[in-house]
Specification:
Distance between the termini: 26 Å
Radius of gyration: 15 Å
Shape: globular
Number of strands: 12
Structural class: mainly beta
Largest sheet: 6 strands, antiparallel
Strand order of the largest sheet: 3-12-5-6-7-8
Length: 195
C-alpha cells in the first residue's frame, strides 16, 4: 500500500486566464501554473523556473497531489495538460492530470497517470487514504517516451469521460467516483520530477 500524501490547495488562484470559443465548448481557460508553486510542503516539492512548473513527491512509494480552486472546474469541460518526465526516471505510480477532484486533494476524484519510460498509462480514483485502479497500467503507442512532452486530455461528457493522450482517444470511463463539482489538479509519484 502506498502512503497517501497531499496538500491543501485552497490558496491557489488563477488570475491570468484567457477565454475563447473552441471545439463546441463555450470557453477555454488557461491556468497559470506559476501560482501553484508551494513555498514548502511536507509531502512534495514544487518549482517554477524558466516558464516550467515542476513537482515531485518527497520519495519513492509516495505520491504528491495538488488540486485547484473551486473556479477551476473539470465538470462538463475538456481539460488538457502537457507534462513530461524531466529525468526519464522509473515510476510505479506515474504522474499526470487530476480531474473531478475535491479542492482538498485525495478525498474524491480521478487521475490520469503516465509512465512515459514504459509507454503506459493508468487511471485511478481517490477516496480518503485509498487509491484504486479504474484502468490498470495499459501500454499505448500514443505515448511519447523518455523526456518527451505528452498531452493528457479528459473530455467530460454527459454519460462518460473520454481519455486522450496526444490527441488520440485511448479509453473511456463512466463517472462513478468523481466529485460532483470537481476541479483539476496535478499528480506526481515515486519522487520523479514531472514538468
Amino acid at each position: 500500500n502506498n502512503t497517501v500524501s497531499n496538500t491543501n490547495s485552497s490558496s491557489f488562484a488563477n488570475k491570468n486566464s484567457n477565454s475563447t470559443t473552441t471545439g463546441g465548448r463555450t470557453s477555454v481557460t488557461k491556468l497559470d501554473l506559476a501560482k501553484w508553486e508551494q513555498d514548502s510542503a511536507a509531502y512534495g516539492n514544487t518549482d517554477f523556473l524558466d516558464g516550467e512548473f515542476t513537482m515531485s513527491s518527497r520519495s519513492k512509494g509516495f505520491y504528491y497531489v495538488l488540486a485547484g480552486t473551486e473556479d477551476q472546474k473539470a465538470v462538463n469541460a475538456d481539460v488538457a495538460l502537457t507534462v513530461r518526465n524531466v529525468d526519464n526516471a522509473d515510476t510505479t505510480l506515474g504522474y499526470g492530470l487530476v480531474f473531478h477532484s475535491q479542492t482538498t486533494p485525495l478525498q474524491q476524484g480521478y487521475a490520469l497517470l503516465l509512465d512515459s519510460k514504459k509507454k503506459r498509462y493508468r487511471i485511478v480514483h481517490h477516496e480518503p487514504k485509498k487509491e484504486t485502479a479504474v484502468v490498470n497500467w495499459t501500454k499505448s503507442d500514443a505515448i511519447l517516451d523518455g523526456t518527451s512532452e505528452n498531452t493528457l486530455e479528459v473530455r467530460d461528457l454527459s454519460d462518460r469521460i473520454d481519455i486522450y493522450i496526444n490527441g488520440k482517444k485511448v479509453n473511456s470511463i463512466k463517472n462513478v467516483y468523481g466529485f460532483a463539482n470537481g476541479v483539476v489538479g496535478l499528480y506526481s509519484g515515486d519522487g520523479i520530477k514531472a514538468g
